[in-house]
Amino acid sequence: MPAKLSVNLNAIAMLRNRRDLPWPSLTRLGHIALEAGANGLTVHPRPDQRHIRFSDLPDIRALIDDVFPGREFNIEGYPSEDFLRLVEETQPEQVTLVPDDPAQQTSDHGWPFVEKGDFLKSAVARLKRQGFRVSLFCDPDADQVALRAAKETGADRVELYTGPYGACHDDSEKAAKELERLGKTADTAAGLGLAVNAGHDLTVANLPPLARRIPALAEVSIGHGLTADALEFGMAETVRRFLKACEG
Predict the structure, then answer these.
(1) CA of 135: how far to CAs of 53, 74, 98, 155, in Å?
(2) What are the b/e assignments for 81-119, b being 16+ CB within 10 Å?
(3) DSSP of 146-198, one letter per residue?
(4) Given this model, what pLDDT does residue 107 score?
(5) Predicted confidence (pLDDT) per residue in 140-175, tens digit
(6) By Cβ atoms counted within 10 A, which residue in 12, 26, 212, 224 is the most buried?
(7) CATH architecture of the domain with residue range 4-246
């Protein structure tokens, strides 16, 4: 079964926030994406609200509940008390925990699972009590020790950070090496009973090789590349292109 596609709305929100105006509309473009076949929507609300605003979350939750029941809302973020309360108020289907500093422009590394194991256990347990699926952002070359520590937190999944793979868009030899790093990590994670998501700088060009190397890939979360393509092809056609790419 192909990986499910979750459309990350952050880049659209950043464009909206350039003006004190309500467009482009996150819910309208989210509606188009879900209508075209996306499985869900992803947001990463940061403390400074530089793209997704906290006030966006109820509207996206309502869009899924009222118009697309059965689709999923995935919220990413660092598990501060404020973030955890925000998640509990919004009730997403999935929470993806990332080790970001609030000042970071974007997620660029996975958790040090061994060092942060106790911290993550507490956050994961709190989220699981609410019934949320929990995924942990993971480096592309995490070893068995690290992944075992990830499993011991109680998380359901890891999300492979595919940024280094995406950065090789003009170097096929290097891309093949990065792809194999991701594949080996996914194999180890699956062997420990962790499902595998992936995200960061994925495109219609580099997604098929990833899907072939990791046939059990559960979900991809894509924002920047998908939004860039939507400017050229429109959101609906772009979602269909990425869904096709998920097939490998």
Answers:
(1) 22, 10, 9, 6
(2) eebbebbeebebbbbbbbbbeeeeeebeebbebeebbee
(3) HHHHHHHTT-SEEEEE-HHHHTTTT-HHHHHHHHHHHHHHHHHHHHTT-EEEE
(4) 65
(5) 999 999 999 999 999 999 999 999 999 999 999 999
(6) 12
(7) Alpha-Beta Barrel (3.20)
- Secondary structure tally for the chain: helices H, strands E: 11, 8
Catalytic residues: 44, 76, 200
Torsion of CA 73, 78, 84, 89, to 10 degrees: -30
Over residues 30-82, the pLDDT tens digits come to 999 999 999 999 999 999 999 999 999 999 999 999 999 999 999 999 999 99
Secondary structure (3-state) at 230 = helix
- Distances, alpha carbon 174 to alpha carbons 167, 177, 181, 187, 210, in Å: 9, 5, 11, 20, 14
Q: Containing H/E element for 7?
A: strand 4-8
Which tokens is 247 given? 């097939």
- Which residues make beta-bridge pairs with 96? 76, 135
The CA distance from 174 to 177, in Å, is 5
Every domain of the chain and the residues it spans: 4-246
> Which residue bears the tokens 């060009």?
205
What does the DSSP assignment read for 74-136?
EEEE---HHHHHHHHHH--SEEEE----TT-SS------TTTTHHHHHHHHHHHHHTT-EEEE
